[in-house]
Automatic annotation (TrEMBL):
<protein>
    <recommendedName>
        <fullName>CWH43-like N-terminal domain-containing protein</fullName>
    </recommendedName>
</protein>
<feature type="domain" description="CWH43-like N-terminal">
    <location>
        <begin position="7"/>
        <end position="239"/>
    </location>
</feature>
<keyword id="KW-0472">Membrane</keyword>
<dbReference type="InterPro" id="IPR050911">
    <property type="entry name" value="DRAM/TMEM150_Autophagy_Mod"/>
</dbReference>
<dbReference type="InterPro" id="IPR019402">
    <property type="entry name" value="CWH43_N"/>
</dbReference>
<dbReference type="Pfam" id="PF10277">
    <property type="entry name" value="Frag1"/>
</dbReference>
<keyword id="KW-0812">Transmembrane</keyword>
<dbReference type="GO" id="GO:0012505">
    <property type="term" value="C:endomembrane system"/>
</dbReference>
<keyword id="KW-1133">Transmembrane helix</keyword>
<comment type="similarity">
    <text>Belongs to the DRAM/TMEM150 family.</text>
</comment>
Length: 268
């Protein structure tokens, strides 16, 4: 059967494609004048065509790659510990962790397909669930990284702790900025800033510029931290290879009944 050895390339490709998926549409939108160049919201890259279509396509590709990475990590984790531990609580946690991770991947796909300009309520709700599920997955994964015997090295496990803390803190901070308008001037008109779900254009002297910059930069930092987490599984994936499934082809089914031999050819 065919064997894929450079399995470590999967999380690398996942990270690269995910970053491209949020950066390129915003660059195209800025070049077309659809949104401002300086730190737009990530979702602004999916507001107008043609960047809207590119944004949706790349988010769907990223979602598939993230789901594959999460699934492969789960299979590797279960395979490694099945013959090394007598308890099975860790296995239950791994299934829960994987389900939450797949929810985050599915949410990412929906974020790309339902733009903030067309369906803002759906988009914002799904984005919140996606960010939340991603953080929960990272926390679960980080905790299981310290299961003995260690599947990853201790430095990698500690790096995951740092990323988990930063990502969790950034999600809390970003949510507080948006929900409590932390950086709005006391006499500012919030309605004038929120507008009608269109991408926001602000000058440097705008009273909303500081709030907008903090909100967008924290969102970008949160997204990059989440995607960067998948780079930490490279070390583990280097220790594994993926065997592709074989296809059993019944050649005798193509012949008339009276001429069918009782043999089975196997395609690998």
């Amino acid at each position: 059967m065919s064997e894929i050895r450079p399995l470590w390339l999967l999380p690398v490709i996942t990270f690269v494609v995910s970053i491209i998926g949020i950066a390129v549409p915003c660059v195209i939108g800025g070049a077309n004048g659809d949104l401002q160049w300086i730190l737009p919201f990530i979702s602004d890259g999916g507001a107008y065509a043609p960047e809207k279509n590119i944004f949706a396509m790349l988010q769907n590709i990223s979602a598939v790659l993230i789901a594959l990475t999460i699934y492969v990590k789960h299979v590797q984790f279960v395979t490694f510990y099945e013959n090394r531990r007598s308890d099975f609580f860790w296995k239950f946690l791994s299934y829960i962790m994987t389900a939450i991770g797949l929810l985050a991947a599915f949410g990412l796909s929906l974020v790309g397909d339902f733009s903030e300009k067309d369906l803002s309520d759906v988009h914002n709700a799904v984005a919140g669930v996606t960010f939340g599920a991603a953080i929960v997955y990272i926390i679960f994964s980080t905790g299981l990284s310290f299961l003995r015997p260690l599947l990853c090295s201790l430095p990698v496990a500690l790096l995951r702790v740092v990323l988990a803390l930063l990502a969790t803190g950034m999600l809390i901070f970003h949510t507080c900025v948006l929900e409590f308008d932390l950086f709005f001037p006391p006499d500012a008109n919030i309605t004038a800033y929120n507008g009608d779900d269109e991408p926001i254009f602000l000058d440097y002297d705008s009273p909303f510029f500081a709030h907008h910059t903090v909100a967008t930069s924290s969102e970008w930092a949160l997204g990059i931290l989440i995607f960067a987490y998948f780079i930490t599984v490279v070390e583990e994936f280097r220790k594994s290879s993926l065997t592709l499934p074989s296809i059993n082809f019944n050649a005798d089914q193509l012949l008339p009944v009276e001429k069918r031999p009782s043999v089975e050819n196997q395609w690998n």
